[in-house]
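ugh ok so i messed up the first submission bc i forgot one of the chains. this is the corrected input, ALL of the components this time, i swear. 807 residues overall. if the numbers dont match what u have on ur side tell me asap before i send this to the collaborators (the ones from the other lab, u know who)
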Amino acid sequence: MRIRNDILIVGAGLAGMRAAIAAAETSRQLSIAVLAKTYPIRCHSVCAEGGTAAVLREGDSFDLHAWDTIKGSDFLADQDAVEFFVKEMPKEILRLDNWGCPWSRTEDGKIAQRAFGGHSFDRTVFAADRTGFHEVHTLYERMVSYPNITRFDEYFMTSLVIENGEVKGLTAIDLRNGELVLFEAKAIIMATGGAGRLYGFTTYSHQVTGDGLAVAYRAGVPLKDMEFFQFHPTGLIPSGILMTEACRGEGGYLKNRDGERFMQKYAPEKMELAPRDLVSRSMWTEIIEGRGLESPYGPYIALDLTHLGEERINERLPLIRDAAIKFAGVDPVEEPIPVRPVAHYTMGGIHANIDCETPVKGLYAAGEAACISIHGANRLGSNSTAECLVFGRVAGEKAAEYALRKSYYPSVKAFDEEEKRIASLFREKGDESAYQIKTELNETMDKNLWIFRDESGLMEAVRKIRELKERYDNISVEDKSKTFNTDLTFAIEVGYMLDLAEVVALGALKRKESRGAHYRTDYPRRDDDNWLKHTLAYYTEDGPKFDYLPVTITKWQPVERKY
Amino acid sequence: MEEKVKNIIFRIKRFDGEKSYWSDFVVPAQKGMTVLEGLFYIKATYDGSLSFRASCRMGICGSCAVKINYKPKLACETQILHLNSSKIKIEPLDNFKVLKDLITEFEGFFAKHETVRPYLIRRDDNYAEPVELIQKPKELHAYYDFTLCIKCGACVSVCPAASTREDYLGPAAMVAAYRFNADSRDEGKDFRLAAICSDGGVWRCHFAAECSEVCPKNIEPAKAIQKLRFQSAIYAIKKALKGW
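and heres the new structure output, hopefully the right one now
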């Protein structure tokens, strides 16, 4: 089956839905399709908790937001993109207000803002501690009001068709009946999120397996800065569920086994509200040096909110209280929450410029799937939902303009080959299990590509990932059915993750410096002379080929990063 | 500090497109392990074909509502040992067509949600130049609880009206309608009430209030429906007077 649209958006989270709305606002004549492997409101963006950064009030400024972001990025962010991003943000907050987002309010009814790590002004707009959830629902509700947006819910992407440097379409399995469908489009936007399930201990939803990144990569689109993975300081143990940075933004403390607020040793000025890379390293150091608290799930750090009082916790952090009680049996009003740093965000992604254009004509990327790059080596909290809104809009508008200019539909001659490939996938009875391979991949990532890295660990990771890739060729898929074959889609996802893990590990091995979230114990300093550059990884049959790209600097020269 | 492991039998209702049957699996459960983790364990260990929906595993995406020991619950936030039984019965939600195993058809559910115009309607809607609207905390609280619906379908699965009439909009759609009607920024109440007063609308509710009982987010759909009935009555009188 073939389905033809002007614009096809893959992924229905914050970036994807914002792109769809922007495209529909640009022209009511365009046919816009949104395709995702889940229903839109089941996307991972609903898990964003703390807030969205924007300059709204007197005392704050675009330059200050840009500087905080660039310093937070350890100077790897492209400064032209950051300057553009901060200026576009306020309107996005107001649009969501006008579309019904239940923003938390000040007493006089204005949009409220709270403190967040690495920001030197209280500029984080929030909707209690369910910001992503409310933003997603608001965009979804707005999206259904446009007649020229069609949804393809529960379609699983398998490949991207690019011919002569131009995007033509993609193939996806209709999960309801197992049929492979060819989607042809003038423009395609990848908004499929990050790749966090590479890790075992993670805040990510189960479905965040980097599908868009892997499919684009395999089709020849370079991935940028994949070695930079963010570890959020506060993941609930043992599940890894996110305990928002807003816990500390609202005044929460981090304490070690001696009850000491140890951040005074590492970031005397910002304390618990230093950027995430720094806080996570500090916590991990406390744990390694034996000052963590003990639990059946290993050592942890105490996130103490007890002094905030029940009323404030209920008003500002209701989800946190509910989740801590339900998943850890701990009421934060009464006792500290047990937490540990946790894999949380993919700074890298599909190489894209400030207009969300990839090197392939007609192919755009936005949100966590893209690397534009405004986060560089370390993202500040509340800048990711913000990025989805600004660059989702940009991608939608640019794709719409492109589609309006383009007079003809691309035509994919045949997709029999992809049909055959999918039909034959794992039909041979091998003795390997995709589930076992995924478990071993997670263990390797959690061990060797964690907060502190070194050459021997990284080489071990590369060796292990390659071994897993070989074993992967020998897996079998038990389920032979057509309807909701989640056994098959799981196996395909594991294949995607193995390709991405190889890029992450090799990129990390090659980058012989410490910058932002990428910390090498054997190269503990930032090295601007050799490494003030972006990594680009290109797919080849024998593994990734690497290239590098200069960082765009406008106003701010790199300086030592202190908090 | 070794945790005690208890073997629990998961008795799961299956459907392969043609026939339904039951499968039993043994899950070694320890403190903190959720029913969803049990399902993943089964899929990875015994039977890769077991199909269920899951995503966030923190009770916010609404994917994994299933019937656990006869009650609709989110599998991700139900701890196995808290159920206090050595056998756990897991079935797909009632009042939804089963597609495969625990996966049910949600197309109709989302289509109904759309019919109530679940979005803010304002005459001065200006995409290019949005302005900050003022909403006092009290006005926010008037509707906030009803924004928390994750659309998991638990309410619809226990609704007696939904089980007898396929065209009944159902509690989740009603919550969405009330949420916007009660928002001080909204000007689209009458549009929504037109849909709500239709044949499959608010008057079909039997007031069993089962929906409020089972909602994992403690929203009270029954309360929203009650308030909508009041709004609908006024709307109907207004319309009659206008026509008169």
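quick check: The two ends of chain A are 56 Å apart (CA to CA). that seems consistent at least. Chain A has a mean pLDDT of 96.
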